[in-house]
Design goal:
single chain, 105 residues, 2 helices, 81% helix, transmembrane
Amino acid sequence: MTAAILTIAMTSALFTIAMTTFLFTIVMTASLFTIIMTADLFTSIHTYINTLFFTIFWRITKVSLSLKMRIERELQNVAKYFFITTLSSLHIGEDGSMFPNCENG
């Protein structure tokens, strides 16, 4: 069962990488075609470089946002755990005051 899940996950990851590379290649090929077909070479090269850097920046940002979301989710889990364990260690006295739960008083 675990092997099947890992196989599906790896296949999905490889497919995502292949499609991203394929789309990246199409964008770069189209940009190169634009450079070749236009008369204003400087503007075309500038556009190509901007497209290249934007694509790389977008991929890095996408990965970093995904990582940021994972870190935030883990921090929320830790905060929930800490909150629950703190509440479970408190004892509400008869007068309504809260103090740590201890056996001797």
